[in-house]
Specification:
five-stranded parallel β-sheet; single chain; globular; about 220 residues; about 10% strand; alpha/beta
């Protein structure tokens, strides 16, 4: 089945351009768009798309608040949010990752990167591979280092689970983690699931934020 997408951006040209690009893909269907965050929340509830492309800065309701509202609704199957921004480093995006957004993408990214991002997020993975994502997390957490405190829940993890969380936070896929630790990929999936359950995490993006904020992974 085609991946369904809702595009939320206050610029009509952006909505139309992204819409045309994604609609041209055989496995992606653009089901709607929204000019502001308030409409995006309503349309997400009505259309239940697989992915919402959400601009960070919009009128009525900004993208962060809109993302929080959509993610808090707990739709089943889940509606995943991919944040869009024109800035390399943006505190709103960092907050969005912590709120459960599946990643972010720069608006001027190449067309093929946008298409890949939608597919990655729709598959339930976080968009963590691009260098800019790692740089955002590293730089923002460095600025907030004075507020960093160990997460008590980390003590509930086994040594192997902590190791996998650290590798996951460095942007490694399940396959890469399995190869690095010489274990089966299914074993990695089991460990990741247990980590999410113990730490009450929604997805890999939240795991990355927690790993940096707790000091388990250090920027750089």
């Amino acid at each position: 089945m085609a991946i369904t997408v809702l595009i939320a951006d206050d610029q009509a040209m952006v909505r139309q351009g992204f819409g045309a690009l994604l609609a041209a893909q055989p496995d992606i269907s653009v089901v709607g768009d929204a000019p502001d965050g308030k409409v995006a929340v309503a349309e997400a509830a009505r259309l239940r798309p697989d992915v919402v492309l959400m601009d960070v800065r919009m009128p009525e309701m900004n993208g962060l608040d809109a993302a929080r509202s959509i993610l808090a609704a707990g739709f089943d199957p889940p509606v995943r949010v991919l944040m869009l921004t024109t800035f390399d480093i943006d505190d709103y995006v960092y907050e969005a990752l912590g709120a459960g957004a599946s990643g972010f993408l720069l608006k001027d990214a190449p067309a093929e990167e946008l298409v890949r991002a939608v597919r990655v997020v729709a598959a339930g993975e976080a968009l963590l591979a691009p260098t800019v994502t790692r740089r955002l997390i590293a730089e923002v957490t460095t600025r907030r280092s004075a507020r960093r405190t160990p997460a008590p829940a980390l003590g509930a993890l086994t040594p192997r689970e902590r190791e996998i969380l650290e590798l996951l936070a460095r942007g490694m896929s399940n396959t890469e983690i399995a190869e690095a630790l010489f274990i089966a990929e299914q074993t990695v999936k089991t460990h990741v699931s247990k980590v999410f359950t113990k730490l009450d995490l929604r997805d890999r993006a939240q795991a990355v934020v927690l790993a940096y904020e707790s000091g388990l992974v250090t920027p750089g």
